[in-house]
């Protein structure tokens, strides 16, 4: 089992973060590291996180400079071979980490699974296939980063998220990785739910 680090970034997410934490800590995956990066929440988010202290390896709570900065802090703290980012209102589907492990190849940089767009009020989900080719920067890409898992050494080779971007930082990162020769692999199964 490759060691997989899951990073959750959060800020004032008391209403949803417990679902996120449980979806990760209840994976049953034997080589899991969990990192939470909190932007200095002022609600009960940290109280919820403390309930799971025995299952979370790293918690950082301090002001940040936006989403990219928080992503990068989590990646820097990660000790796993593979890093996944599950935001504090998204859900990692049962068995997702095992599915990533089953597709593990030493030459793959980015593992891309399906994502379910989830309407919490109606309960409906809509599956979406990830884009696998990022040959140019454009507005419409199926990025869905909660269902993408990236090797830590790929971040070291190709760089982290650009902190001057506050939107579409994930699109820019994948385009940069693709253009520099990163290898992408499709996992044709849903790995995460994205709360609409």
Question: What does this entry show, briefly?
Answer:
The chain has 196 residues and is an alpha/beta fold. The chain is 26% helix and 27% strand.
Outline the secondary-structure elements.
Layout: E1 4-10, H1 17-25, E2 32-38, H2 45-50, E3 58-61, H3 67-77, E4 82-85, E5 91-92, H4 96-102, E6 110-118, E7 125-128, E8 148-151, H5 152-158, H6 169-179, E9 184-195
Parallel strand pairs: 1-2, 1-4, 2-3, 6-9
Antiparallel strand pairs: 4-8, 5-9, 6-7, 6-8
Summarize the structure in words.
- The protein is an alpha/beta fold and 196 residues long.
- 26% of the residues lie in helices and 27% in strands.
- The chain has helices at 17-25, 45-50, 67-77, 96-102, 152-158, 169-179, and strands at 4-10, 32-38, 58-61, 82-85, 91-92, 110-118, 125-128, 148-151, 184-195.
- Strands 1, 2, 3, 4, 5, 6, 7, 8 and 9 form a 9-stranded mixed sheet that branches.
- A hairpin with a 6-residue loop joins strand 6 (110-118) and strand 7 (125-128).
In this structure, how is the largest beta sheet organized? 9 strands, mixed
Helix-strand string: EHEHEHEEHEEEHHE
The CA-CA distance between the termini, in Å, is 32 Å
Structural class of the secondary elements?
A: alpha/beta
The share of residues in extended strands comes to 25-35%
Quaternary state of the chains: single chain
Radius of gyration: 16 Å
Provide key terms for this protein.
196 residues; globular; 9-stranded mixed sheet
């Amino acid at each position: 089992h490759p060691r997989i680090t899951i990073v959750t970034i959060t800020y004032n997410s008391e209403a949803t973060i417990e679902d996120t934490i449980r979806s990760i800590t209840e994976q049953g995956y034997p080589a899991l590291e969990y990192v939470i990066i909190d932007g200095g929440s002022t609600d009960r988010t940290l109280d919820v996180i403390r309930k799971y202290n025995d299952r979370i390896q790293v918690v950082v709570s301090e002001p940040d400079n936006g989403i990219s900065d928080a992503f990068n802090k989590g990646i820097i703290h990660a000790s796993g071979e593979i890093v996944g980012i599950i935001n504090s209102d998204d859900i990692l589907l049962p068995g997702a980490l095992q599915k990533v492990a089953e597709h593990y190849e030493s030459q793959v940089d980015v593992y891309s699974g399906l994502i379910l767009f989830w309407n919490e009020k109606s309960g409906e989900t809509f599956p979406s296939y990830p884009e696998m080719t990022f040959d140019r920067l454009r507005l419409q890409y199926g990025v869905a980063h909660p269902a993408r898992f990236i090797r830590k050494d790929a971040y070291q080779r190709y760089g982290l998220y650009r902190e001057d971007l506050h939107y579409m930082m994930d699109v820019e990162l994948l385009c940069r990785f693709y253009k520099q020769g990163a290898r992408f692999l499709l996992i044709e199964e849903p790995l995460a739910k994205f709360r609409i």
